[in-house]
Every structure is written in C-alpha cells, then in structure tokens.
Protein 1
Amino acid sequence: MHDISIISIILTALLALACLFLILSPYFKWDTYLNVGVKGQDLVSTKEALLITLNELEFEYKMDKISHADYKNLKKQYEAEVAGIMKEEELTIAARVDRDLMAEVEKEIEAQMKNYEQKRGKESD
Amino acid sequence: MFLFANTTIYIGLAVAIYSLLIITLGISTKNQRLINSGKGGMIALFVCAAMAMLSLFYLLATSQFQYEYVTDYTSSELPIIYKLTALWAGNAGSLLLWTFFLTLYSIMIAFSRKMKGNPMVPYISAILLANAVFFFFILGFVAKPFVLLDTIPIEGKGLNPMLQNPGMIIHPVTLYLGYVGLAVPFAFAMSALILKNVDDFWIKMTRRWTIIAWLFLSLGNIFGGQWAYVELGWGGYWAWDPVENASFMPWLTATAFLHSVMIQERKNMLKIWNISLIIVSYALTLFGTFLVRSGVLTSVHAFANSNLGLYFLIFMGVAVILALYVLMSRYNMLKRSAGEFQSFVSKESSFLINNLLLVGAAFAVFWGTIFPLVSEAVRGTKVTVGLPFFNKVEAPILLSMMFVMAVCPMLAWQRSTIKNLRKNFLIPSILAVAGMVLMIVLGIQKAWAVIGYGVIILLLITHFLEFYRGVKARRKMTKEAPITALYRLMIRNRRRYGGYIVHLGIAFITMGIIGSQNYDLETMKTVSLGQSIELKDYRINYDRLDQKKEGINDIVYADVTVFRDGKKLGTFQPEKVFYGNWEQPSSEVAIISSVKEDLYIVLSAWEDDGKATFVVKVNPMMNWLWFGSFMIVIGALFAVWNGKYGNVTPRYTGVRKEVS
C-alpha cells in the first residue's frame, strides 16, 4: 500500500499552494516592467560600441591585422557614425532645452492669462 | 513520500502546460499580467523539479527499496556519495536531473537583469517551457522515477561498479549542463527570428551561455574519457562508442557556432549559417539522447532499452521542423541584411573554413554512428562501424582544423595582402618546417606524427606572436610595463585571449592524442612469481599474488615492483575486483604517470600455481592530454569571467515593445 502519511499530505498541499500563489499573484499586482525606457540607453551603447570598435581597429592595425587602406576606410566610416550620433545627441539635448523653455513660456502665459482673467473679473464686478 | 514525490512531477506537468499556454495567450493578446503569471509558473516549475530531486535524493540516501528506482540502482552497503549520485545512473533519474537544470536555466533567463523589459523574454520562456512540458511528460508517463514495487526486496541490485568512480559523479552532470545549456541560445535564436530581429542581439546575449554550455560539454567528454582510461582497463580513452559520439557531435557544432558568431558580430555575416548551426546543435543533443535511450545501437553505456528514445526522436523532429519553418519564413530578411565576403584570404573566410571542417567532422561522426542503422534498414544486416573508420576519417579533418586554427589568428580582416602574409607567416612557417625536419632527424618518422606536430609548432608560434604583438602594440599606445600590458591586454578582451588559451589546450590535447595513438606499446605476458616483464625501458617484477575482502567484494591483487632504467619506481597493485552484487568483475589498473608517458598495468588472469597474466602498456604523453583539458577549462572560464571590459550593453533596435 502506498505510504500516504500526514507529512506527505501536508507537503503536497504546501507545494500545490505555493505553485498556485506563484501563478495567481501576478493577476493582483500592478506591472512594473512596462515603463523601462530603452531609446536613450540605446544611443549611448551604440556610441560606446563604436568608440570601442575604433579603438580595436587602431589596435589591430598596429598588430598588422588589417591593411592600411582598409584601416583608413573603416576608421573614416566609424568616425562618421560617431559624429552622426553625437549630432543626434546634441539635437536631443537641444530639443529638451526647447521643451523646457516652451514649458516656462507656457507657464508665464498661463499666469498672465490668470492675471488678466482676475482683472477682468474684478472689472466686471 | 510517495504522494509528495509523484505530485511534484504531475503538478510540474500541469504548471508547465499552463505556463506555456498562458504565455502564448499573453503574447497574442499583449497582456502583461498573463505573461507574468506564466513567469510565476516558471518559478513554480523550478520548485517542482527541485522538490522532485530532493525527494529522490532522500529515497536513495535512506535506501527505500520499495521504490523501483532505488532498488535498481543502489544497495544498502553502497557509500552515501554513490547512493546519491545513483540519481543519474538510470533513465528516470537522469532525465529528472536534466529537467531540473532546464527549469533552473529558464528562470535564470526569464528573470535576468539584462533581459528585463525585453520583448524577447516571453518568446524565449515559451520555447523553454515547451521543452519543460516534454520533459515533465516523459517523467510523468514514460520514465517515472517514483514507481512502487509490489513486493519490497530486502536488498537493492546495487550500482554498476563501473559507475562507482569519482569521474562518474560529475561526468553526467557536466554533460547534462552542456546539453541543457544549448537549449538557451536555441531559444534566443528562435525568439529573435519570430520577432523579426535579424541583428546580433541574441548572439551577444547568449555569448556567455554558449561558452558555458560548450565548457560543460567539453568537461563531460573529458571526464568520460578519463573515466574510460582509469576504469575500463583497456588503456584507451576514446572508442567512438555511439554514446561518446552523441556528446561529441554537439560539441563539434557548438564549437563551430562559437566561432561563426564572432563573424556575425563583427561583420554581420553568416546569419543563416549561425541559426542553422544552433538548430543543429540543439537537435543533436536530443538526437544523442535518442541514441542512448532507445537501445537501437549497441553501446558500452548501459541504459535500459526502452521506447524512451522514440519520444526524443519525435520531439526532436517536431522541434527541428518548427525551427526550420521559422528560419525559412525569415530567410529573405536574413539574407537581405547580411554582409558579404570580400576576399578568400581573410580572417572571416578562415572562420568559414574552420566551420566547414567542424561541421564536416560532425557529419562524419554522425554518418559513422547511424550507418549500422541505415545498413540494417536497407540491407537487413547490422554493420559495425569501428575505430578504424572514425580514426581514418576524423584524423585528417581535425588536423586540417588545427592548421586553420594555427593560421587564423594572424590573418587580416577584410583581406590579407601579400605584405601581411609575408610579415605574419614567413618566420612561423620556416620554424614549423625546421621543427618537422628536426623530428625526422631525431627518429620521429610516422607521417601523421610529423605533420601533426609540425602544425602544432606553427600553432604555438602564431599564438605566441599574437600575445607578443598584442603586448607590443599596447605598450606603444600606453607605455606600460610588459606584464601590466599583457594582463590588461588579456582582461580587456577576455573572449579572444580566453579563446587562445583554449586553442593552446586543444594543441596539448592533440599532442597527447598523436603521441598516445602513434607511439603506444603493449605486451601481454604470463609470468610466474619472481619473474619479470620488460617493455621499453621498464622492468616489472611480479612479486606476489593475493586475495582480500572489502565489504561484500572480493579482490584479487598482484604486487609488482616497477623499475625504469634499473631505478626502482615503487611497488604497485593492479587488482581484479569481484562484486558481491554484480556479475562482471572489473580491473583496477596500476598507472605510473610521468610527463613523458604512462605505464599502464592490468592484472588480466591468474592460475592456481601463482602464474599471472598481465597486460602492460606504455601510453606516451597522456598527461599532455589531461593538461590540455585543464587549459581548456581555464581558457573558457577566463573568457566568461565577469570583467569590467568588453561588456558594452548590446544595442537593441528591434520590434516595438508591447509585452516583456
């Protein structure tokens, strides 16, 4: 006969409950994964990868692992890519600055409008 | 315990099916909560597998002979360590171990910090879960680990004495870690394809996983070889047995994969090839299991014949068909985005040649392994494909591979100019040829040995130059001291220099193989007490024959004194062990090891008048083989060690993120 002991039953029940908990608990939780931003990090890592590639290229050239012509061509190509990314970064920063500026201007306009409305209110009183 | 142990398997199966379905549903409805529930299920799966393992460990350790598995593989007098390791002595237990590793790897990926928020995770999880469903199904219905016997035997059948060896404790574990490990890059590759990501993100993310899986596969093969050498008493370490081949084939294709991914990372080439390679490697792990567990081939590895292999064959078939379907449906996309070769003499083309050789070697092993099956199906007779076939076919392929390995580091990317070739190869080639001439002058005249060692000299020189020039170039840029420059050079490019260490390890192994295969000596002699056997510069004096009892085992042993060039090396005891609970006796070999060679003494037979028959072998350069194996481990660990450098976060420019 199978040795179905009390301990065995308790352990089985605990296992089943643990599995149920693990499966069901996500239904009662707000998700935290969806807000991870990837874009900014992406730009940085591409730039980093390109800089490392440039470094590696120079190293390999010094070790005679790449011909002079290839070295020059590739170097130029990667440098152009880095320059492109840097430009894009600058634009992003500029856009952020613009956004900040716009927000400030908007705030000011709102404040002035409020002022104006208040004045008008007083006048109409 | 019966209820709990069995429940772990069946709850596991239910959870695996649920998680697979719910994640698939989550993907199609883009519902993050469903995905998270599936991920929770993956933890639950791991808990189930871990509990099942613990239950079986407990039953084995406490000798609960009412369980079939415990009776079949243990006995009460067995040392506790072997009672526990009997877990992977049979079908059910070893598949449970496999399942445990699979669930462990799955949660490591699903909850990895690096993969957080990545849309590939649900797909990878689903693929790994499909594997888990299969394994839990097998454990639940085909190879059940917790079956009760009708009558409880007083004693178990015991563990095959051949498996009672330290090498056998770790050999299966490392092999399974390798097998399961290959499922990870496979799952990543498939997910990337399904998501139409044809960049190299999946390769970068699985780089470490692949090297670790490869390392474990290597270790599995090495430990297996060492065990065969020490335990089987035939003086060899590799017999091209179907089961050895089963683990060697994925090793070959995984080695090819490890190299060709570098070309994809660097040059955006070989995309279809890489995906095909990982599909093949993954399929070969399942195919190997089919070979081992089906009993279709005769092998020294004693897994009970069962229909288990068939399930693996079916699962492999389905996996390969689905994988090929995904690959074909993305074929144009992969082709469109791939780079092209610019020259035949370049680093990238040498990588391709190395790949073709490795895959060719794998195919030759595959063909030799299944040929008996094919011939039986076609002609009705089972032909045995033995050692000579494999040695004849594999030796030239693997030697060519060594040549490519020697040449590759010095070749230039894009295209090698004449100037580059002259500068990098003139001196190494002259030295290698000079070495070959010197070998012939010194009396090494076997063609394979001369060519083989010549290639290895070339390899050692090119690799030395690689380190030397690296340090020189670095010092030019940084003005560091040589040692500092070497250290920084290596830790800043772990994968490359770890790879070179592995290459050197392979060179040592090859030297050991060439030496031990071409220059081994063997004699078999029957001698009376006091007489001696002479072989090469060894003299073995036969002093005594006696018998002793160890537990339930009877041991017959001979005392022999070994002299080398007249100098005493010591007294040794080759033994023959007769087991109380096992029919076949086994040989305990006396091995006298040195850097140059091993003296290998086997007590083969004896007569009542004290005469004994010994098999004595001299196996040259065996320690080179083991040292090379050690270097492989060091190199692979160096390559995957978590360093500050070379860990640029891979860029990810894939699909729009919806669920992760």
Protein 2
Amino acid sequence: MSASQREVTLQDLTTQALPGRCRAALDAGARMQFMYAWFPEDTGTPELRYVLHPGSGSAPHVWRCRPQSDCAPSLAASAPLLSWYERETTDLCGLLFREQPLPQPLVLLPGTASDRPPLMPGPAPFVRYAPAPHQLPAIAGAAPEDVQTMPFGPVRADVAESTQLIFYYIGEAILHYHPQLFFKHRGMEKRFEGIEPGLGPVLAERVSGVGGVAHALAYCHAVESAARCEVPRRAAWLRVLLAELERLYNHLHYLGYLCHTTTLKVGEAQGKYLEELAKQANCRVSGSRLLRGLLVPGGVRREPALGELADDLMQIERRFQRYAELLSATNSHLDRLITTGVLGRQLAFDQGATGPVERASGIERDSRRDQPYGAYAELPLHVAIHDGCDAQARQQVRIAEITHSITLIRAVLEGLPEGPLRSECRPPALCEGLGWAETPRGTAYYAIHIGSDGRLSRVKIKSPSFSNWRVFPYTVHDTNMMDYAINEASFGLAVAGCDR
Amino acid sequence: MALKVLPLWTLYGLTQGKATTRWRGEGDEPGQRGLFGMPRLDPGKCQDACRTCAQVCLPQAIRVAAGPGGGRVSVDYGRCVACQLCVDACPTGAFSSSSDWAFGSRTREDLVWAQAAASADGTGLKREIRRVFGRSLHIRHVDAGSCNGCESELQALNNPYYNLHRFGVFFTASPRFADLLLVTGPVTYAMRGPLREAYAAMPDPRFVLAAGTCAVSGGTNGGGYSCGTGLDGVLPVDLYLPGCPPNPPAIIHALLMLLQRMPQRVSGGQIAPNGARRGDSRA
Amino acid sequence: MPELLRIVFWSWLAGAVCALAGLTVIARGLIALGAAAGMWASFAAVAHGTAVLSLPISLIGQKVRLHDAPEALWFIGFGLLPAALAVALGTPIGRARAGWLFGAALSLIGALGVFAVQNAYAFLIAWEMMSLGGAVMILSEHTRPDAGRRTLYMLGLLEVGAVAILLALLLLSRHAGDSVAFERFGRDADTLSAGTRIAVGLLALAGFGAKLGLLPFYEWFPGAYGSGSGATGAILSGVVLNAGFFALSRTLIDWLASGGGEYVLGILVTSVGALTSILAALYAFQQDDWRRLLAFSTAENAGIAVTTLGASLLFRAGGEPALAGLAWTVAVLHLSGHSLAKGGLFLSADGVYAAGGSYRLAQRGWLRSARIIFGLGALFAAMSLAAMPPQIGFVTEWFTFQTLFQGFHLASLGGRLTLALAGAGLALTAAVAFATFIKAFGIGLLGDGHGPRAPRIALRYEAAVLLLGLAVLGAAVGMPLWLHALQSADVAHFGVNAARAMTSGWLLVPLTDTFAFISPSLLILVMPLLAVLPLLLLLNGRRHAVRRAPVWYGGLREDPERSATTSLTFSNAMRTFYSFIYRPTLDTAREHRAVAYFIHKLEFGHDVADVFGPVLFDPVRRTVWRLAGRLRALQSGDLNFYLGLIGALLVVILALTLR
C-alpha cells in the first residue's frame, strides 16, 4: 500500500480565516509545506492551495481558498517559508498578497515584463526583459560607502549552474548575501500543461537533472493518486532501488565537491571517481547514467538489468568505507567544516529547510518514513540525523545516508518480489493528485490537476532546492568569504530544480 | 586507526591505483556499456498510416508526413532526448535502441535522418585550428538554463576516469582566456544576455559548442514563455552535440572533433560503423 | 650665505605681520619666497656650512645666534621645498587664509630657530613657536566641528613634551655649570653619570618624541592632521618634523656623548622607534582619509629614523664609530627624503580636496581626468613612501636594513638582539607601508569608480606634485653626489667619514661593497630597457584588429561604482589578522519587516581602537578634568577672595626672596 493513495484531506477556507488558521496550525505543531495557485476550468478564477502536515507523521492537509478580487492575506509573518511561494504566485498567476513583507518579483527577474500572468490559461504570454538593478537591502549608517557590492555570475567560474551571487563585502567579511536565482527559470510548470499524463515523467526527469528519479517518482505518485491506481509490488521495489541509486551517486558527488572546496585534492578525486563508478552502474542498470527513462505512472517501463549491480555495489562500498573513514578523521578537512555555515534548528524550521540539510540541524524528518510511499515501509530504512547544525554535520548525514542507501539497494536486490511491472494508470478527467518523494536534496512535491480533456492542466513542482536556497543566505550573513564556497558546497544546492 | 595527516592522503591516493582509461576513439569507450544512445530507425519496417512514435515523442523529434510506408517518417536527432519511448511504442520494431552516442556534428543537417547525405568536411578549418590552438583548448562553459544533467556530465569530465586534462583541454573561469564557448540549456530569456556577453568577451578565433539536446534545439524544455529553442539564432554554432545529457565520452569526442583530432562520425542522422563518416568510407 | 638666511627670517616675520594685517597675497608671497630662498641658501651653504649669524634680538640677555651644522642645513633644505610649495599654494580651505599664513610663518620661524639657535632659552621659545604655529594653522582651517578639541589635545601632549624638554635642558645646563649656551652642553658630556645620561635621553625622547609622534604620542597625529589641510600636513611632516628629529639627534649624539648608560639608552631608543613604526604603519593602513593615513605614515617614518638613531647609539657604545656614523647618516637621509615624498602626497590630497571637496580615499578616477604630470609626481612620491626602487624611500629603507643587519658586529647580545628584532619589526613595517601606499595611490588616485567624471585638479597642484615627485627621484639618483655634503657632519660627530664610505663610484654601499650594493643612478638608466619588451608586445598587438568588450562581470553589466574595491575592503583582512592590536568594531544593524528574515535595510559602521588612548591618555585627561573641577572653587567671583589670594601670594614670594 503506497502512501500516495492515502487520503489527502481537503478543506475550504475563506481568505479572512487564513491567517488565524495558519497560526493555530503552526501552534499545534503543523509544518507548512508549500502553496500554489491554479485556474480551475469551471470558474476561471484563481484558487489557492496550501499544503501542510499537521504533525510529523501525518498525511498532508490541503487548504483550498478562493481569494476575492485576486488578493489574499500574506501568511509570511507567521510562516516565513511561504513568502517565496506568495511572491512566485504574484509573478506567475497575477495574485496579490496583502502585507507581503518584501513584495518584489521573485521568479521573474527585475526588469521582466510579461503581458499577462504566464500561468493564466489562454494565449501564450509574451515576456520582455531588460536587466534592471536587483532590489537589495539599502545600506545606511556611519560608513555605507565602505561596503563593496560584489557580484559573481550568473556565469561563474568552472562548470557551475547559472546564478548570480551578490555579496555586501567589507574585505573578507560578508555583511549580507543575496543569491539572485531564477536566471534558469524555464517555465517547466507551464511545459506540463496539455500533455498526456503518461508522458509527464520525461519532463519531470528534466526538471532537476540530478534528481530526475525522485522528481519523476513524485510526479508518478501524483498521477497515481489522481487515477487511484495501484503500483505492482515489484515495480514499487524497483522504484526504491532507482531512487536510492540516485541518492548514492548524488551524495558521492557531494563529497567529492566538498573536498574540492576544502582543497583536499585526493579526496576530491576519489569522491568523483566513486560517483563515476556509481553512474556507470546506473548506466548498466537503466541504460542511462542519470537513471532516466524507467519510471512511468503505474509502475516502471521495463525490467532493469540488475545482474551486475551487486558486484558494482560491493566495489563502491569497499572503496567508500575507507574514504568515509578518512573524511571523518582528517583534521585539515574537518577544521574547515566545523562551525562553518551554522543553520540553527529554528531557522531550519521557519524557512522550511529539507533533506540532509534539515536532518543535519537535528530535525528528524524524512518523507520516506513519515509520509511513506512505495516499498519503503517494507524495507530497512534508517533516517540519519545529526545535531551539529554545521557543514560537518551535513557531511556526516550524507555519509550515513550513503551507507543506508547501499543497505536499501541490497535489501531490494535480495528480496525483490516477482510480478508485473506496471498497471494501467489513466487519471479521469477533472481530477487532481498530490505526490511526493524524497530526493537526495529533500522532499519534492508534485500537485497535478487534470483537465476535461484528460490531459494535464496544471502541475505545481515544489523542489527541495527551492526551500534550501531560501534557508541558505541566512547562514552566510556575517561570515567570511573564504568559508563561503565550503558552506555552499555543504548545502548541496541545485539551481535547476529551484528555478524550474 | 584514523589517518589525520594530510600527506597520507597522497599515499592513499597512490594505493587506489590509476583510474584513467585509455581513449580508444572508436565509439566504444570503456565504462559506457548498457548506455542507450539515439534510437535507430529502420523505415522499411514502418506500417502505413502509423503515427504512434510521433505521438509519444515529447520533443517532437519524430515527424510523420502523410503518405505510405517509412519514407514519410523524419527524425531530427538534434531534438531527441533518447527517452526510448518511440522504441517502447513502435508496434513493428522500426525504432530500436542503440548505443549510438557519438553524435557530434558540424552541421545541423547531419543530425536529421536521411537515406544518404554527405556533409562538408573541415579540412580548411583544420590547419587554422592547429595553427592557433596547437593541440590545446580552453573552454568557458555557460549554463543557459539546463536541467543540471549536462553539468553533471561536464563535471564528470574532470574525474580521474575521463581526466580531460590529458587531452590538453581545460575549463577556464574567464571568457577572456577561452577558445570555446560550451553552452548547455535551451537559452532562457534571462540567460540570453549573459550568454552573448560571454561570447563577446572571448577573443577571436572563438568557437561555440551546443552541448546537449536543449542547446541544440530546445529539446523537451525549450519554447514556452521563458525559453528559447537552443542556440540557433542566438550565436553561430560550430558544433552540435545532442544527447540528454551527452555522456562524457561523447563530449570528449566532440571536443576532439573540434580540434580536428577525431572525425565526425554522424552523417545523415546515422553513425558510421567503423568510426569514419559514411561519406568518407564510400570514397 | 648667512645674509640670505637673515633675509629668510625677516621675510617670514614680515609675512606673519602682513598675514595679521589681512594682506594675504603679500604674506603668502613673502613666506613662500622666504622658504624658497631658505632652501636655496641651505643647499648652497651645506657644502661649506658652519657660518655664524647673529640676529639683532636678544632673549633674557642672551644674543640669538644662528649656528648651522651641515645636517641642519640639509634638513632645512629638504624640509623647505615642500613648505615653500605648500605656502605658495596656500590652504585649500578658504575660511581663514590669513590665520593659516600667520601660523605657517610662526611654524617656519620656530623651526628655523630650533635648527639654529644656540642657547636653551631661545630654543624653548622657538620650540613653543613651532608648536603654536602648527596649532594656529589647524585651528584656522577648522574643517571639523571638533577640530578645536583635537588641536588642544595635540597642544596638551606637546606641552607635556615641552616640560620633558625643559627638564632635560635643566639637567644638561646644570652639568654644564649652569650655562644655557649649547656650545657648553657637549663639552664635558663624557663625564655625565650613567643615570643622568639615561634620564636626559629619556626626557629628550619623550619631549621631542611628542613632536615626532613616537610611542605613545603618535595618537595625536591623525586627530590633529585630520582636521587640517594637506598644506599644513606638508609643513608639519616636513620642516617641523625634521626640526624635532634634529633636536633629538643633537641631544642624544652631541650633548650626551659616549659613556655609561649609552648602551641601555640605545636599546630603549631603538625599541621605541621600531614599535612606533610598526604600530603607526598598522594604523596608517586602516585609514580612509588622506590626511589621517599620511599622518600615521609620518609617525611611522619618524619611528624608522629614531630606530636607526638608536642603532647609532648602540654602535657608538659598542665601539663601532663607522657603523654609528652610517646609522646616523641613514636616519638623516631617511627623514629628509620622507619630507619630499610626504609633501608630494599631502599636496596631492590638497589638489583632490580643492577639486572634489573631500579628503576621503575613494575611487573617483582622479588620474583619468588629471594631466600626466600629476600622476607621475604622485606616483613617484607614493613609490618612495612604499620603498619602491629607484626612489629615495627605497634608498633610505635599504640603507636602514643594511645598517640594522650589521648588528652582528656588536659584541653584546642585547644589542645584537635588539637590532635583529628591530630589523624584523621594520620588515613588517615596510610590508604594511607598501600595502598602505598601494591603497592610497590605488584607491585614492588611480582607481576609477566609473562614477561621474572626477573634476580636473588645478594645474598649480599638479605642477607642485610633479616638482616634489621629481625631487624624490632626483634625490635618489644623485645620492652619490649629495652624500658628500654630510661628510663633515659625520666627521664632526663620530670622527669617521661614514658618508664617504657609503658610496663607491655610482654605487651605494653600507660602508663596504662586499656586503651589498644598490645604484639608483644606474637603475634609472637600465629601467627603461625593461619597458622595451611590453612596448614591443604593444606594437605587435597593433597589427591585429582590436575588438573591445565590456569588463567581464559574470555576464551582466554591473554598476562598477558599487562593485569597486573600497578602502575598507582593501584593509579589513589585515584588520582581522591583527585584531589583537586594532581591536576592531563592526556595527551592523539589520532593519526588517514583519519577522527578522525580511531584511530591507542594513546600518553599517566600523572603527579600530587606539592603543594608548584608552589606557594612558584618557585616565590622565579624566584626572586633569577632575582637578580642574576642584580648582574651580578658586574662581568664586568674589573680589575680596581674589585680593586675599593675591595677598597670600605676595607673602609667599616675600618669604621665598627674603630667605
């Protein structure tokens, strides 16, 4: 029984009731997840959806709210993590939020003009762009002219995703930091509109390339919940295998890159080499080094080639154990990590940190266990946590997760049930579904709405990096430039998923 | 026992042995076993009035014109993301999975399936490139809105397995030192300007490589309100490399092709079996 | 030449009178011409030296006579070039030109007196005139609301110094049989007891050190300089500083002669000099005001000169008169070269202020709008202060190190150790000073903030800066020639001709050419050859078409003004590294909306703490205030009470006289 099919509670709220309900829910220990707007076909007026978990192990609640005259109260003051979703909704759906603390464009860069809200149904929007200065905090005080504004990017050194990093810099010390994201905004949510639900995984795999399996999985879960279809047991187990293989190569890459920033050269080479071995194993299993092309709503598309995986895994594990021991005991490496990029528990909760980042700040939450899906409930799942709150804690959580992933994969290989790979999964017209999956970077959510033609009419993607990028800047203020790269690497952020 | 001293890492590195493989240059590089490349088309097997493959092709790489038989099917590998859905969907096996990944091409036309095609070769260019670059190349990479899949494979180029530096090829931070602009992604509206700035900042002679299907044609992600459809019309492209993402040996092959150290292997949307272009083997 | 010096004195006096009468143009002409003539006269006289000139004034029955030693003439000559230019240009701060000119004249007359008068009374008066002149200059400019307080602080510290000088002179005078004539002071100096020698030496160090900005007095410099103009700074860092050092050197070398306690004194003087230069250099680097930066740098250079003076004492005590002569000559060379370069930069700062209205170091692209002569002059001056070849600052710092390195000739471990440590300290100083003047020149003049085009600097400033820049270069290139002028002084003080041993043909050597050598004279011939390669490359590049692309900012056209390196970003790393000295404070307040996460405004301020202010001067100042508060009881305002006080005073006087 997979959790995607567990009932999602849907509640209607008025805009007036929203702030009070939000505060009451948070006081009762709820956790806001995300928010989005969509345009139902019947009314044509926008509708807001707030997704939250009332308790740590509970199924999601969804609040439905129809704002009057395209305006709703902002919930950012009580749930700060909603601020970005509100600003995004203003950009893409044209809705306004009263008392939004920083009412600036988010997803559309400053200087962008769209003739109509891009996600509004109807003719294609036309977007014009003339770069304008970013809206950064003003500098005042005794010596404002001594602060240097230092921009990096969007084209940065080495092979890196495009994003602009802006520092308020006073010589080694960073006063303030603003990552100007969304240079890579591709309008992926709009790309889903009007396609057959069965083709969706091809797009979902390409929202965040290195989280493709989990994204496609969350998407499939959403479609399956809309279609109320069951995934065959063998397929559910294989999905766990694919998702954990993805976690494996991502975390190995993470360690290699972290060593790069602490200039541990051999560690970097070894981490990247292990990543390569994992990718080659992926390639033999699925035909794709990034594990693409296997997931489909209702199951998996074909039988993966698992013959060599046990040997590949053993080779990786043998090398990894020694590597992890070294990383956890090398002073020059640890000195750079300990106390770097401290992310306190409250900040992590308020801004909605997710995945290993959150778990390294002592918050024990993992959707694989708390909102279980697929075959995880049947398998030996461990949730790694650490309460160090710093870069070292984030490294240790990832090291532990690699071990746990290998255990999971091995358990799948040993106990893989026989049976069909795929069941029929066609969502009916005019329905909706919510799905999630734990990517290597945290929880991804997909909310889908099916139109009257049986095709996708709205897909909302909540990627983990969207949350973690929002958290990250607060760990950079008042730190040193020489720690910045290490701090950023320790978060393991991806831009593509955030920008979509 | 914990190793706490840095120099012992060197020893540890040495005990791990040599990871770099030999570059064979024949399209069957080690470590790529099992990889699905572009699907092959055998138009002879096509049924009349069948449009199944085109219907499942999200990036619209497959187009089917009206008419009988397979002659009406056209495949643009510059749009293909190798999702293999056409292979799954085809009722007759006209599309079959292959490991054809070395799809670097100097012209966009060579990426479109054709019964027979000859492409221009770059002998004139060869001497110029050798004269200017020797055997070395410096690359400035620009992510113009990719999904991070291409970056993942580009970053893999510097791992010990592929060890790009052995070819004399390096990534550089500033476009001022770059010979080649390697672009990934379908070019979002916000990255169009920075991309042009990067190109403008490069000294002549300069080359542009469209890496990945997105940069070649927009792929699945291109178009829409905030994306372009690849580099055509934005920058003059010297080399197209479709693939979603192109695997590291495919990128290496394309780079060596640009340096005239490897021949182009694709022509008319098909890869010549012996490593040389089909046109060459005929001659 | 004495006649010319007499003219100099009278023209300054006349200038001062004219200034008081409000005839500023005439006053300026008279003082500047007087200074130029004084420079001319000193350089002309330095070769033959020692003429005695009596002025028709007498003080307390003592005739004022000018008796110029070669080093005094040398100091006057080097100090008066920037002073003449500074007076000719005048202060750029318009309010009280007349007052400033009066102060300048007073300072110059005082300085001349310090160099030349030959008795203690006249010396003290000249010294006070010099201090007062500086205060008048700064007060008349009055650029800051708290300038008055800062100037009083400076005067207060100088008066503390003056009391020390008075005590030192009293001790010396008593030893010389209650004579106040300086010619008597040095005569029986070798019979001074070790205790007296050390006491007099320390008093002189404190007294003259207050003017030189030695530890702990360097902290008055930036406050006082920072509220004046560059022209004031050029005079204070030039001829006035030289006068202070001359007086210190005369006390330590001539009046104390060789004898017991000299060794200890040498160690103390060297240490104070080296520590001063380290601390002052570190603080100079942190300044973002032209005048404050240059002021700290002045203290740093005085520290270097005092370090070599201390080395000279150590060498003399260790029986190495040749090395002692070398060290002393190097100190003289260092300060005289410094006054040229420092004058050049102070006048550059004035040019910037006159055109832009601010002394702040900020990237405004001054050189882009200025003529090349300004850039060249300022570059030479900055190179010299950063000790870059072939400028005079390089020559003298090189000599400084060559002198300190020869500490191994000393027999005593303490002396060796002191000189080795001083050498290490000065190496740090040199590195920091290098960065400081990269910052001053780079951010203050060269840096192009791409903002609104900086206004053009007036030609008169540019010409003055060029003149001083060329003087800096000329002093270095012609050093083998100029050094002849100090030969007689060396012989007079140490009995050895160190200055002659410092040259070997066109080479400069530390007494022997087997140890080390440099030659700015030859370097200036060779250096253009080094430019040949870049020039050839440039010419070769002309063959290709040039395509210009905007500065690479990661793909966006950023606002280069906001992205430009600021004075703080340049120096903050050092501030962090040496935080145990600077004890820096950063105040960042974040204004937010709704919750702390939504930051919309940053308030930023920063500072570095003084070393001695909080622990030494502030308690003293508080004590003085408290005492003043108690003494206020005397000011009752009651006439009868005052009459009573006068009566009591008369009784005391009568009791003392009738004793």
